[in-house]
Amino acid sequence: MHLADFPQLKSATPQQKLELIDEIWATIPPEAVATPASHVAELDRRLSALERDSKKTLSPEEARIRIRQRTGL
């Protein structure tokens, strides 16, 4: 399967393409995608850092505020 098989995507907006990507991704079962060892190592590193100093964490609302401030979204 190739992008050329879907000519209507050429005229789709970037937002429409991203929504389609999200839809497709949602149909893939988690067990069908291997987690790279580097991702597991990074998660382990972050969890260890969090356990050492939990004061650096943000609440979900604080995180949203920072994201909005940085991105203007």
Outline the structure in words.
This protein is mainly alpha-helical and 73 residues long. 56% of the residues lie in helices and 0% in strands. The mean pLDDT is 92. The chain has a domain at 37-73. It has helices spanning 14-26, 37-52, 60-71. It contains three helices and no strands. It is flat and about 50 Å long.
Sequence of secondary-structure elements: HHH
Radius of gyration: 19 Å
How much strand?
under 5%
Helix percentage range: 55-70%
Q: What average pLDDT do the residues reach?
A: 92
Largest sheet: none
Brief digest:
The protein is an all-alpha fold and 73 residues long. It has helices at residues 14-26, 37-52, 60-71.
Descriptive key words:
3 helices, single chain, 73 residues, mainly alpha
Give a topology summary.
Blueprint: H1 14-26, H2 37-52, H3 60-71
